[in-house]
């Protein structure tokens, strides 16, 4: 336990340092804070806070933020993955902070941060963070409530506002990703001494009483989640024959409402047992005395069993039931693949992510999200320093620990949508960028993501350098958004390194284009300088070279010369907010307006 405690303290110090570096004064009108001291009645047999109780508090706090912004009743539509990094014990204080990151037409994303405080030692640490989607309920007349937009004030709020659109994109594609993974599923395996899945089945019925409802007289969503955690824990315990620890709850969606007098039938079963984790599937159905069962929620929960040193133990394997059990077994493998992709592509810090991640169609969504979010995160940094300026081209640098990043700003006499359309054609970049000798399109993934092979000069004589780049292109999905062209290295088995070329890597690079006055735009290029780029940019930063000024002066001339030849359609504020993706999400939001909070 001592080693685990020291690791926690080390992480706490790193998190505290990061918070001090990025701390900004925020006076968001939607921010809600809750603090609770943990009492024995909140805890399990180990004197640790029950996750179900924590989910109740999270849901209450997030709902208050949503209703403060909407000024009308709101209900929980969905909750993204929640990963519980640490447990909370009796006597400690849990603090929950929530605020609305972004409002769409009738739905909004609420960000939630959960931290813990030890009153005797004074230590603070993060427990988890979550993103919940809330929708407004229709008025008594049946009229929908349209939400006013969020106006971000601090840089951190602006970043969350921008990334909320990317997270929304991932949510909408989640089911399609599962289906695609299942088409490439692996064969089931029979294990010796495996535990039969039917032995882990749990069923429990709860009667919904007035204390279980919210201020809208619907069954409280946090209460339903707490009941689901209870039956899931029993199912996991039956497999491992000890007390497991809940580590992760996968993304889930509330499908329908429940009211006072409903009976909630809760079913749980272990779907799959991996080497050191267990996935339990839980289904909640509501019914009245004479009515049929209504499916109102499903969730997938991941448990671990920890030894005395806090390390995961090896677990018994599972023999699934025929047919439906086999389907759940395969789906659990697909969800584990998604969790790994999210952990190593999205959730990890940039310094912990391998530069070139193998690309395949099944992790494309997360690579694309990471590509765009990493660029936006880099752009949101506060400590950029102006290194030099020439011919209206400004060069900035940013030093963070062992990483050097640079930014080039220049204003162009071209509308932002036109500049975006011209620069998004990466194959044309060699015509203005002498660093790009050749750029070929390998594969168009979809309308927004492309794979390119780029050849550049090398610092070594008679040797070229090449890159395999994923380009993710984003138009604004609402007012206040910028145009984005994000670039990062990936690995392609079809394009291995070749003799005579050094394979380079790009962690984060790309353009962010913003509209300015008089139909002009501000063009910002960012790059986290990898060893392949550093020899070129360091000379410019030190004032020994002007190569990047020349390149971006050439870029400005290229955009100006081709502005009249660009045939891309003009994007107006009206059709930005009525995109097919936006309409689809709003239809989903409206269908959930009767969902319980």
UniProtKB/TrEMBL annotation:
The pathway to which it is assigned is: Lipid metabolism; fatty acid metabolism
Q: Where is the HotDog ACOT-type domain?
A: 28-140, 198-309
Q: Ranges of Polar residues compositional bias?
A: 573-583
Q: Can you give the residue ranges of the START domain? A: 384-561
Lipid metabolism as a keyword? yes
Q: Does the keyword Repeat apply?
A: yes
Specify residue ranges for compositional bias: Acidic residues.
15-26
Which keywords does the record carry? Cytoplasm, Fatty acid metabolism, Hydrolase, Lipid metabolism, Repeat, Serine esterase
Q: Which Gene3D superfamilies match?
A: 3.30.530.20, Hotdog Thioesterase
* Segments for region (Disordered): 1-31, 573-597
Q: Which CDD domains match?
A: BFIT_BACH
User: InterPro entries attached here?
Assistant: Cytosol_ACT (IPR040170), HOTDOG_ACOT (IPR033120), HotDog_dom_sf (IPR029069), START-like_dom_sf (IPR023393), START_lipid-bd_dom (IPR002913), Thioestr_dom (IPR006683)
Q: Which reaction does it catalyse?
A: butanoyl-CoA + H2O = butanoate + CoA + H(+)
Cell compartment(s), UniProt: Cytoplasm
- Give GO BP annotations, semicolon-separated: acyl-CoA metabolic process; fatty acid metabolic process
Single GO MF annotation: lipid binding
Q: Which GO terms describe its cellular component?
A: cytosol
Which PANTHER family does UniProt cross-reference here? ACYL COENZYME A THIOESTER HYDROLASE (PTHR11049), ACYL-COENZYME A THIOESTERASE 11 (PTHR11049:SF1)
- Protein name, per record: Acyl-CoA thioesterase 11
Question: Which species is this UniProt entry from?
Answer: Takifugu rubripes (Japanese pufferfish)
């Amino acid at each position: 336990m001592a080693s685990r405690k020291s690791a926690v303290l080390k992480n706490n110090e790193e998190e505290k340092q990061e918070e001090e570096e990025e701390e900004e004064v925020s006076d968001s009108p939607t921010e809600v804070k809750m603090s609770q001291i943990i009492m024995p009645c909140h805890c399990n047999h180990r004197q640790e806070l029950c996750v179900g109780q924590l989910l109740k508090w999270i849901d209450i706090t997030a709902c208050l933020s949503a209703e403060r912004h909407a000024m009308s009743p709101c209900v929980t539509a969905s909750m993204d993955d929640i990963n519980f990094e640490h447990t909370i014990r009796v006597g400690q204080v849990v603090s929950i902070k929530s605020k609305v990151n972004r409002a769409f037409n009738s739905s909004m994303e609420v960000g939630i941060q959960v931290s813990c405080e030890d009153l005797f030692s004074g230590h603070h640490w993060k427990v988890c963070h979550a993103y919940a989607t809330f929708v407004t309920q229709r008025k008594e007349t049946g009229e929908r409530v349209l939400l006013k937009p969020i106006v971000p004030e601090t840089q951190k709020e602006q970043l969350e506002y921008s990334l909320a659109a990317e997270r929304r994109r991932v949510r909408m594609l989640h089911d399609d990703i599962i289906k695609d993974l299942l088409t490439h599923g692996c064969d089931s395996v029979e294990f010796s001494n495996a535990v039969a899945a039917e032995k882990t089945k749990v069923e429990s019925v709860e009667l919904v009483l007035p204390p279980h409802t919210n201020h809208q007289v619907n069954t409280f969503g946090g209460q339903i989640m707490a009941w689901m955690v209870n039956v899931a824990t029993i199912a996991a315990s039956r497999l491992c024959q000890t007390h497991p620890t809940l580590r992760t709850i996968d993304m889930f969606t509330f499908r329908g409402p429940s009211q006072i007098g409903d009976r909630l039938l809760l079913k749980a079963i272990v779907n799959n047992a991996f080497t050191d984790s267990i996935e339990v599937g839980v289904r909640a159905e509501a019914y009245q005395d004479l009515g049929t069962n209504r499916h109102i929620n499903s969730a997938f929960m991941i448990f671990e069993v920890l030894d005395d040193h806090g390390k995961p133990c090896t677990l018994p394997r599972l023999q699934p039931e025929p047919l439906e059990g086999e389907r759940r077994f395969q789906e659990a493998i697909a969800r584990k693949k998604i969790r790994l992709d999210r952990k190593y592509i999205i959730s990890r810090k940039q310094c912990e992510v391998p530069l070139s991640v193998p690309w395949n169609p099944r992790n494309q969504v997360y690579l694309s999200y990471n590509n765009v979010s990493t660029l936006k995160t880099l752009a949101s940094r506060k400590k950029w320093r102006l290194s030099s300026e020439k011919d209206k081209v400004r060069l900035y640098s940013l030093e963070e620990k062992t990483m050097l990043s640079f930014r080039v700003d220049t204003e162009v006499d071209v509308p932002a949508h036109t500049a975006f359309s011209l620069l998004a054609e990466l194959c044309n970049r060699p015509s203005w960028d002498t660093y790009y000798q050749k750029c070929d399109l390998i594969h168009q993934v979809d309308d927004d993501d492309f794979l390119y092979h780029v050849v550049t000069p090398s610092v070594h004589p008679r040797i070229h350098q090449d890159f395999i780049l994923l380009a993710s292109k984003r138009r604004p999905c609402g007012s206040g958004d910028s145009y984005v062209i994000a670039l990062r290295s990936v690995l392609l088995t079809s394009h291995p390194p070749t003799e005579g070329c050094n394979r380079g890597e790009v962690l984060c690079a790309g353009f962010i284009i913003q509209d300015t006055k008089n139909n002009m735009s501000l063009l910002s290029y960012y790059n986290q300088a990898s060893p392949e780029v550093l020899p070129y940019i360091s000379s410019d930063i030190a004032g020994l070279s002007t190569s990047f000024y020349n390149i971006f002066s050439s870029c400005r001339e290229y955009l100006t010369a081709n502005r009249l030849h660009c045939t891309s359609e003009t994007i107006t504020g009206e059709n930005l907010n009525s995109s097919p993706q936006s309409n689809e999400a709003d239809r989903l939001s409206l269908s959930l307006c009767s969902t319980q909070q």
